[in-house]
Amino acid sequence: MNLGIGSEKCFTVTPSVFQPEFFGVINLPHPNQAIYIGFGMASLLICYWRMLISIIVPTLNTADSLPVALHQLAHRADVELLIVDGGSTDRTVEVAQSFTPYVFQSRPNRAAQFNTGAQHATGDILFFMPADAFLLPGALEDLQQQIITHGAVAGAFDLTIDSSRRVDRLMAWLANRRARLWRSPAGDQGLFLWRQVFAVLGGFPEFPILEDGAVARQLRSVGRVVFLRTGLVTSRRRWKTHGIVSSLCLDWWVRFLYCLRIPPGVLRRIADGWLKPAVNADSTRQSTCVVVQSSRD
Question: Are 69 and 99 in contact, with CB atoms under 8 Å apart?
Fold first, then answer.
């Protein structure tokens, strides 16, 4: 039986046991189903040389940050760039179409957007990249090398924030410790995995929150998940409204409750309740500024 991973379909699946130094074992979360993926040296060279990476970017009113994420990827021969918009009201779709013809529409749900992109992807590896992040030079080459040489089914980058503030670096370090300890990367870290593995898992569950945690839980029972220390940089602007400390503490608290089997719908309400005071406070400050400015005029 052939799994068909890689442009040359070089990963062969058989029910026999191979030598561990050449073959990685993937135990799928389905009854009596196990896949043994072979990593012969010649096959490794063929796959690495001709591998296609499908980069799927979910967007929603990200016209300002999108060019930073896409400008270095649009003309790469080894990249298939797919943008899935969730109903933006700004120029996001227009900006995306200037970088790639593969722009799709979906409802505003990150899991639904990821799944829509994956349905249209043809690459060997699916890379789910945040719209407010950008890749460093050599990151995709490192991604390919690490997922192959370590016999991994998936991986992610360590969280790196585009900031020199010590508190930002500390919170990123703590987030990375959590992700590595639990082998559970967050969506901000840019999850990547073999397209066939994604298909077997059934895609992202379309939860209102923590769809990345649900997939990570499945991947832990499937096989090895690798982490790359550098390569993906996330903009600090996404935490500007609520603050990085508050946002990451909320993320950890919600993930802990998810481990206790709290339904995602309840977790969404908890998250909204946590963030609502900050939004109201920000709106109040803006209204105060308007009043003060009006009184000056």
Answer: no
The model's pLDDT over 85-138, given as tens digits with 9 standing for 90+, comes to 999 999 999 999 999 999 999 999 999 999 999 999 999 999 999 999 999 999
- Closest Cα partner for 128 from 55, 200, 179, 186? 55
Q: Which CATH fold topology does 51-240 show?
A: Spore Coat Polysaccharide Biosynthesis Protein SpsA; Chain A (3.90.550)
Full-model pTM = 0.78
CA–CA distance from 138 to each of 45, 67, 77, 144 (Å)? 18, 19, 14, 10
- The C-alpha atoms of residue 3 and residue 28 are separated, in whole angstroms, by 13
Strand-strand pairing, 53-59 and 125-128: parallel
> What are the domain boundaries of the chain?
1-50, 51-240
In this structure, what token pair is assigned to residue 178?
A: 């959590």
**Which pairing describes strands 192-194 and 125-128: parallel, antiparallel, or unpaired?**
antiparallel
As to burial, measured by CB atoms within 10 angstroms (0-12 exposed, 13-18 middle, 19+ buried), residue 77 is: exposed
Beta strands of the chain (E only): which ranges?
23-27, 34-38, 53-59, 79-85, 103-105, 125-128, 133-135, 154-157, 192-194, 225-228, 232-234
Look at residues 251, 213, 228, 39 and name the one whose alpha carbon lies nearest to residue 146: 228
Tokens of 56: 């799927």
Coil, helix or strand for 63?
coil
For 296, phi then psi, to 5°, come to: -65, -40
d(CA 58, CA 203): 15
Distance CA 290, CA 297 (A): 11
- Answer for the pair 81, 55: CB distance below 8 angstroms, yes or no: yes
pLDDT tens digits, one per residue of 69-88: 999 898 899 999 999 999 99
Return d(Cα 106, Cα 86) in angstroms, integer: 5
* Beta-carbon count within 10 A of 117 CB: 24
